[in-house]
Design a protein that fits this description.
two-stranded antiparallel ribbon, 6-stranded antiparallel barrel, 10 strands, mainly beta, Thrombin, subunit H, about 110 residues
Length: about 110
């Protein structure tokens, strides 16, 4: 059960826009979809191996009120932190809250 007081982090939801720039080069930008209040909770810290070294990945669950255009979010920004959206869940299929499973990126 989500309580309104749990939504204490002001985050920016961002989409993805790919365009072709000068010289035919692909340019990726992250336009802002909305600034919303959200709940941010660490979910898990799985371990993976990349290029022969062990990495710890910070996975977070970010919950915010529902709006249909939020379903296009691919990145979430909180201050200097950036989270890459891995999956999106419409909590209870009731169009009240959206849960984003995210990986924190540098």
């Amino acid at each position: 059960m989500i309580r309104i007081g749990d939504l204490r982090h002001r985050v920016t939801l961002q989409g993805i826009s790919d365009t072709v720039g000068d010289g035919g080069e692909k340019v990726r930008t992250y336009p802002t979809i909305a600034n919303v209040w959200a709940e941010l909770k660490p979910s898990q810290i799985p371990v993976r191996t990349r290029a022969g070294r062990i990495e710890f990945v910070a996975i977070f669950t970010i919950t915010c009120p529902y709006a249909a255009n939020y379903l296009t979010a691919r990145r979430i920004v909180l201050g200097a932190r950036t989270f890459q959206v891995q999956s999106i869940i419409n909590l209870g299929e009731q169009q009240r809250y959206i849960i984003f499973q995210c990986e924190e990126v540098n």
